Amino acid sequence: MQVGVISDVHGNKVALDAVMADMPDVDALLCAGDVVGYNPWHAECIEAVRDRGIPTVMGNHDRAVATGTAFRFNEMAAAAVRHAEEQLTDEQRQWLSELPDERPELDDRVKVVHGHPEDPDRYTYPQEFGPHMLGDEDALIMGHTHVQGHETYRSGVVMNPGSVGQPRDGDPRAAYSVLDLDESTVDERRVEYDVERVQRAVREADLPARIGDRLSEGR
User: Fold this and answer.
1) How far apart are CA 157 and CA 153, in angstroms?
2) 136-172 residue pLDDT tens
3) What is the reported pTM?
4) In this predicted structure, what is the pLDDT of residue 72?
5) Could you tell me the CA-to-CA distances from 205 to 71, 78, 95 in Å, in that order?
6) CATH number for the domain including 121?
7) Which long-range contacts (CB under 8 A, 24 or more apart) does 87-92 make?
């Protein structure tokens, strides 16, 4: 079974469109959270995920927008949360608020969380992956760090598909992964997209310039 995995779209519809255009023919799609935040297309990204029926968990930015609680965020992130709150409909905010912190999928063969199985807000980098993180599932999918990586163990796969909308691993290309559940393999993929278009949109939305600038750096 081939599973397309995305995470941390963060309102970057240009990058999301590029990823979905590049996505091979898969049996299922999954999202590890943070559909909104940072970039200006919050509503469009929600609708793109909803239209495709992609099972999604709640990221910390999703929660902040849904509940109006961005007090732990730096000013750059908080500004984007405020922008999203202004842009989204009540129905879209309700959709965010109903996202679970974790979800078993594909007959419990996969567990999807945002940060860590024990704490949805915990940053868990690839060098911290280990077989102890797996339960009965064949694959554990996490996001949150915006750093693409995976490890394969006798008991299964632990992976982060990387960030669609704001990579932070030094590669500015949009990131996603394809998980082969039967072979326990992960194909980590990157896609070029029009970063300058996003940077212009960030400026036009009067969001902090650093949101757009960092996209060129993959930071």
Assistant:
1) 6
2) 999 999 999 999 999 999 999 999 999 999 999 999 9
3) 0.96
4) 77
5) 22, 14, 23
6) 3.60.21.10
7) 87/40, 87/42, 87/43, 88/36, 88/42, 88/43, 88/46, 89/43, 92/42, 92/43, 92/46, 92/47
What six digits make up the tokens of 40?
């200006």
Q: Which residues form the domain of 49? A: 2-216
Residues of the chain with pLDDT under 50: none
User: SS3 for 47-98, per residue?
Assistant: HHHHHCCCCECCCHHHHHHHHCCCCCCCHHHHHHHHHHHHHCCHHHHHHHHC
Amino acid in position 211: I
Distance CA 157, CA 138 (A): 6
Cα-Cα end-to-end distance for the chain: 32
Chain centroid to Cα 64, Å, comes to 15
Q: Count the domains in the chain.
A: 1
Question: Quick one: pLDDT at residue 70?
Answer: 67
